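Two folds, back to back.
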Amino acid sequence: LCSRRFSFGFAFWFCGNRPWHLALGGLCLGGLYLFRQETAILLPGLILLRFMAPTRGVLWRELLLVAVFGFVAVFPWLYRSWDLTGDPLYNAASLLFHDTDAFPNWTSSRTQAILEMSSWEFVSNNWGDVLQKTAKNGFRFTRDLLLLPGIFLLPFFWLAIWPKRSETRFPLTAPFLLMALTLLVVLSPLEYAPRFLAPIAPLAILVAASGLMRVAENKTQWLQVSPRVLGLLPVLVVGLALATYAGSLWQRSAEPQGTAMVALKDLDRGVAEDGMWPLLLGGVLLTDAPTLYAWVWDRPAIWAPVPEDVQATAERYGRTGVILTCAAGHGDGLQADDLRQAYLSLVDQPPLDQCPTVLRVNR
């Protein structure tokens, strides 16, 4: 929700023609970058969008103003990451891949599993699961592509793609459809994440903007549109909105534990009530979400996505405070229930049975 607000704020202020408009747009862009660093993929398209704006001034000055205020918003996180890692060039993601003070002697069981088996070998041994995942990811990417310009820009987007017979399509429509189809084919067998569609998001906005300009040029445009489009647009918008809302409700009901941040607040409250803070302050944090927890818990932490990592780390550090978390999804081939039971069984085994342990199972 916060990233959507930052996106709307950035798009709103970035289209302004005053310096303070661009300054606010830069702050929103920096805030959006904090939520998703992949936002940087949007910059080439945003530069193109600004270049095509009819009210633009000196382009390099405007972009410099946006960049400066974007850095102002990002600087606190960069400084905190510098403090955690000891290197100004490390970012939050570096906590997963480097041996730092926050993550000493870091090893990843997932990386080891990837090195032990080739991709082709995995596909040949699990072709049924791969096909099922590809179909599921393809449906999700298709849904996101249909909603890509945003729910409010969607009607104008389809006006540009599906014009009247007497009008020509927007010139960038064909490249957009080709890029969308390419991403759909390439990404579906791999992994689903809406951010993977970021490279074509600026192009979708330009296509929608062309439809908006057609409406602005002729105020009676809505009355002259083909009845097929007028009948399809409300059904498409309402149907996709309801499907997205129903999907979010189903996901919440399937994951009653809530988000990692909610679990962290519950854990914070439980530790304070049990009087375990003195024991945990000098402890080691075992977690599946290090970039989140290392920010809040300023002490050593180890990424432990599988139970074997927890056991080995507990043996290394001995009698110490341990915070245990595990993901509710898949972990190195283990189902969620199996992974959860494996974590729970470790609490009664040495050396974890000799140290104060707080167990939290979350997303």
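---
second:
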Amino acid sequence: MQSLERRFYKSEPYREICKVHKVKFEKALRSLPLFRPK
């Protein structure tokens, strides 16, 4: 998960999108019990 996430955020075309949607993405992950951060 971390390596994929890192590569995604490093990608130039997605950088701005990530900045905008990172919070929404993290909230979506937290809503899933299997992917809840430790």
